[in-house]
């Protein structure tokens, strides 16, 4: 890398999902705490799929430590509003009730609030509510001077080699058996209510996680912004027979989903990484991308780390930075349907068997290759970028992080997925629920023990109050308007075009 100055311009942010759980390890069914403000409008605390699933959001940060500091402060504020409830620190969910009892997120009485809940109703109709309770970390990343073509080159390489992150950071090798009730799963029994695979890294990113047979038929190309946007718009506009059978509304007039298309909105399309652009009020994401180009990428395959109180640590962030630079600067030929299918097979193979000795993967150029050899090659490429990052920041934090994490390749017992199974076996009778419950208690205690100043308390109280006032303003502006007219306009195809 000849010009290292842009490296100081890297910007990052984190979105972290977590279920609210009761002390005994079951899902909390209480409403979103009023002390946290309005989920619709709060800048740092919202909900994801369920009313019981928090999403904590940082701002945009130039430094790793600053990003983690803000994420920690948001956790501190949240824990003070939760009472005896915990944030569940595992990606695979706590003990869940029957599907219909998992509460959908609610955002108030405005049209946009209602649309968000109807969208979630549709997700439940299409994929089941249990699947939506899986939680993870999303890492948003940008580098100055990179345009849409550069970001799509990064995305193609990430999709080829992102399995490495599952191997190094995956932390969901086991789950509560109630999650797969009445489903074919292929898992092995460990203890009462616990299922696992012995070499799994991330069941969240495997066949039992965010997967959709319907979406498997979406032929999305990542070769340029134009082809990506066209294929995604086709999926949004294309009626899907199974979803047409569900219908937009029930005979009684209640809403089942926003549309009968293969996708209701852009965010329904599952992917390990997304091209993103900050949208303007009322704007569709596809329109924003087409008009102004890619602004940043969103990495979506990171599990919650149950050994980190806030779900992610500095070493992980620094390795992500180096890996994303590697994906950006490495040769990135155009993808093909055959390669896209091989990428998906590699992802599932590493999710289910990533620590298996001698595991082979499908390389896009060289045919079958041992995971260990390919991973070592990728890490060698990352090392060059870690060195460049240390040169501009001073010190050796990036190289040290890569060395520590890279040791997991030679010693898979150091991988978080292996550490989870070892801890379950040693202290918790192989119980997934008991282990994650213990880690959740420990994270709660650690974060509540940190200083929470009057200034911090005041800032979060003000944000909560302002978010409630903004929600009320939005609701007042919608009085007298028809939701069905809003819904039709909201999903209109012309709003996705230039």
Principal-axes geometry comes out as: globular
Count of DSSP E strands? Answer: 12
Number of DSSP helical runs: 16
Average pLDDT: 95
Output the helix-strand order: EEEHEHHEHHEEEHHEHEHHEEHHHHHH
Helix share of residues? 40-55%
Number of domains: 1
Rg over CA atoms, rounded to whole Å, is 22 Å
Low-confidence stretches: none
Largest sheet: 7 strands, antiparallel
Query: What is the top-level CATH class?
Result: Alpha Beta
- SS class: alpha+beta
Terminal-residue CA separation: 36 Å
The CATH topology assignment is: Creatine Kinase, Chain A, domain 2
State which percent range the strand residues make up: 5-15%
Can I get a quick summary?
The protein is of the alpha+beta class and 498 residues long. The chain has a single domain, classed as Creatine Kinase, Chain A, domain 2 (2-Layer Sandwich), CATH 3.30.590.20. It has helices at 64-82, 111-127, 129-132, 148-161, 163-169, 225-237, 241-246, 285-292, 314-329, 337-353, 371-393, 397-410, 416-427, 432-448, 454-478, 483-490; strands at residues 11-21, 45-47, 53-57, 86-87, 137-142, 174-176, 188-191, 194-196, 273-276, 296-302, 360-363, 367-370.
Task: Explain what this protein looks like in three dimensions.
With 498 residues, the protein is of the alpha+beta class. It has one domain (5-496): Creatine Kinase, Chain A, domain 2, CATH 3.30.590. Helices cover 44% and strands 11% of the residues. Strands 1, 2, 3, 4, 5, 9 and 10 form a seven-stranded antiparallel beta sheet that branches. β2 and β3 (53-57) form a beta hairpin.
